[in-house]
Amino acid sequence: MKVKLRTLAISMTLIGAIGAPTFAAEELVKPIQPPKSINLGMAELGKKLYFDPRLSKSGFISCNSCHNLSMGGADNLPTSIGHNWQQGPINAPTVLNSSLNVAQFWDGRAPDLKAQAGGPIANPGEMAFTHELAVHVLETIPEYVREFKMVFGKDKIDIDQVTTAIAEFEKTLVTPNSRFDQWLLGKKDALTADELAGWKLFKESGCVACHNGENLGGTSFQKMGIVEPYKAKSPAEGRVAVTGKDADRFSFKVPTLRNVELTYPYFHDGAVWTLKEAVDIMGRLQLGRKFTEKENAQIVAFLKTLTGEQPRFTLPILPPSSDKTPRPQPFGK
Amino acid sequence: MKVKLRTLAISMTLIGAIGAPTFAAEELVKPIQPPKSINLGMAELGKKLYFDPRLSKSGFISCNSCHNLSMGGADNLPTSIGHNWQQGPINAPTVLNSSLNVAQFWDGRAPDLKAQAGGPIANPGEMAFTHELAVHVLETIPEYVREFKMVFGKDKIDIDQVTTAIAEFEKTLVTPNSRFDQWLLGKKDALTADELAGWKLFKESGCVACHNGENLGGTSFQKMGIVEPYKAKSPAEGRVAVTGKDADRFSFKVPTLRNVELTYPYFHDGAVWTLKEAVDIMGRLQLGRKFTEKENAQIVAFLKTLTGEQPRFTLPILPPSSDKTPRPQPFGK
């Protein structure tokens, strides 16, 4: 019975993911490619904006606060801390390799990075600002005014330019050259026997049905709790919020497994802190399979080979505010 | 009358600052020297710790949260945001060039950077952790264990090593080669006529009596409000908290003017956002002198020549927690 259920689950998810029930697992996972077409001036501007807390009401929270590039592009908290220490409803997904995802946010409500970037700025529970105020701050900072003009060739900054620049920077945040990618590219001694056994299990037990593509995830939406329901600590209901379809309740974007060693805690509610527990739960709830201790350890060993080269760059120096810059409002008002 | 008062104030502060009522102003200010003896391995470890929010209870606040190296080593807020969004009592001073200060904190209660570094970690209003818990977090992170051992040659991490490493990193955070320093070192066209006029005013009106040394400040404690009282928005009473002497009430460490263009808002209560207003208040309250619009603009122009080369370094990548690492407690508990 369990086997049957598992097979069914795999077939369903494969159909959802790639539209065909074949199982050419090696081809389902590909090494990450460094980005091929980056506007460097725009990415450099985007990097500053990504680190600039003046895009928040408080002047304290930047993109990097919750998608911390020192920490796997996440905040390593179950759910994030927003303006006035509000508790977020969902785990902050990593920004690393997010350009490879089919859509952004757990429910996929943003089609791309640019659309995503505007969300937290204006979310009252996150940066608690407005697009208008954020743009107004930027246009009072002479160095930004010059840099936007250089990059976009326009006399006036707008939110579209802001999110375009942030998205361009985020496109650079890929992590190639993990040991697994080295192995995929032909370095046959890049993985140990246990790691290879983990990869084999990952394929054969059906993990790869959802965690596939360059990003080992991010290619489809899947129900959390196929074989057994998942008792989430988060009120989020997933994809249904976007499609309105009852069938999409508790369906979430499959998260990437790239750098998963760095992006704890796991799942959309951030309830699980260890890969061991995450693998166990995924096996039982999604595949109807209870991995043995040894199998679990092998899969975890494989997952740790997915840690790629982290983006290395100089911390940006932000241009100073001018006397005309509106002041942050961290407390009250 | 005003002139007499001013002369008195200058003489008093000169005696306080350098112990002699001479007025060799050029010699009172010196160019910043790059640090001459840095333990690079220790500084690299310290950089990671400086950026690591796991030294806080919430897992969200690091040294860099309030002494942000993208923003002049400060947070550009009147007073800082601490654990649970608590409002701090005083403006966060810049970490830049802080190794050149005679002591740390506005009241000088820490004799050096090492003593300072332990303060915020254990302050319930800031990082809200304890030294014991911070060390316990670090000793569960294998990469940190190895790096501490490499740097300190001991089998066990302790808080003394943690603060020593952070202080070593902070020693690297000097900002040489400002335009003013280039001028001091002989590049006579480094300053404009207005900037030079500002420097002349800065010396002759007595600013340099307190704002002297390599750091144009940080060499002495002085009363805030010599000629006229300062109506502070902060409850802090300054140096009296350390010495217990009533004469030290409202006496604060003279802040550095290095990079002052970047370290707004100003004064220990962060009440003033523009250099124009800060110069006006300082003139009236400390020197009994009302600068004209033109004089004020010239002094501000001079102050902006004190922006040095900001520390440029690669954003550190932090080692991941292990399954044994205690979890952050951002909410409740």
What does this structure look like?
The structure is a homodimer of 333-residue chains. With 333 residues, the first copy, chain A, is mainly alpha-helical. The first copy, chain A, has 2 domains: 158 residues, Cytochrome Bc1 Complex, Chain D, domain 2, CATH 1.10.760.10; 132 residues, Cytochrome c-like domain (Cytochrome Bc1 Complex, Chain D, domain 2). In chain A, strands 1-2 form a two-stranded antiparallel sheet. The interface between A and B is large, with 42 and 42 residues.
What's a concise summary of this model?
The structure is a homodimer of 333-residue chains. Chain A is an all-alpha fold and 333 residues long.
Oligomerization status of the protein chains: homodimer
Strand content of chain A: under 5%
At the fourth CATH level, what is the homologous superfamily of the largest domain in chain A?
A: Cytochrome c-like domain
Determine the number of helices of chain A (DSSP H or I, runs of at least 4 residues): 13
CA radius of gyration of chain A is 21 Å
Helix content of chain A: 25-40%
| Overall morphology of chain A | globular
How many β-strand stretches of chain A?
A: 2
Largest sheet of chain A: 2 strands, antiparallel
